[in-house]
Design goal:
5 helices
Length: 137
């Protein structure tokens, strides 16, 4: 059975290329060998290694949530809750104001709250490979 990673960037109008660049690099390095489907929203990204879909219908989005083995997402409450309701392992990376990914850092607070309560994993995007290994453990 194939392992499926679903990456959801939400529908924020600001780019979150930083996360997709890191995932693409980890695939290139062979650290991720699984199928990766990305709901990129308004983040324009091209990749030969991932299936990148700008916007999905709610049915398509919910289907990806149900089928995935790992959910990697931004700090959106809705996506995190959807993953938790479906019993998914979740790694969340908040969009950061300093990179112009959001207008403020409220996603940091959201992600930290879920992390501190033991629901998700988070860290710096540069630690993606080790976070995926933690999920496997």
């Amino acid at each position: 059975m194939d392992f499926l990673i679903f990456v959801s960037l939400g529908t924020n109008d600001k780019s979150f290329n930083r996360l997709l660049d890191k995932i693409d690099k980890e695939i290139e390095l062979g650290n991720i060998n699984d199928k990766v489907i990305v709901q990129s929203g308004f983040t324009k990204y091209k990749s030969d290694r991932m299936d990148v879909i700008d916007l999905m219908s709610m049915d398509e989005f919910n289907d990806c949530i149900k089928k995935c083995d790992l959910l990697i997402t931004h700090g959106g409450v809705g996506t995190i809750l959807d993953g938790l309701k479906n019993g998914k392992r979740i790694i969340a990376f908040p969009r950061l104001k300093k990179y112009h990914e959001h207008v403020n850092n409220h996603q940091v607070e959201i992600v930290n709250e879920f992390y501190e309560n033991g629901y998700i994993l988070t860290g710096d995007i540069s630690d993606l490979d080790s976070l995926i290994k933690q999920v496997d453990e």
